[in-house]
Amino acid sequence: MSQRLIKRIEAVDFLISARKTGTPTSFARRLNISERALYRLLEEMKELGAPISYCKLRRSYYYTEEGRFYAGFKKSVSPVRSYATELPVISQEPVFYESMA
Predict the structure, then answer these.
(1) Element (H, E) at 63
(2) pTM of this structure
(3) Which of 9, 14, 52, 101 sits most deeply, having the most CB atoms within 10 A of its CB?
(4) What is the pLDDT of residue 97?
């Protein structure tokens, strides 16, 4: 997924969450894409689980459920485990082996 597509999805998500998309024509113009490209993008977001609908009265898209659309890496709250801290401690004393003569 390209960085440009992710930014476009984030813009769509922001405007849908704010219920300030306007009509499909104005929404597409605002995103600098064709109306057909807007419909494809919305359909892809729906296929990924976004509950998007359109209100003719308000002339805006909206989410039918509370939530946000994320299309990227989200950092974990817990720190990443370091394999170096999990390795056994090796004795610093030299080890001498007896010859088997």
Answers:
(1) strand 60-63
(2) 0.67
(3) 9
(4) 53
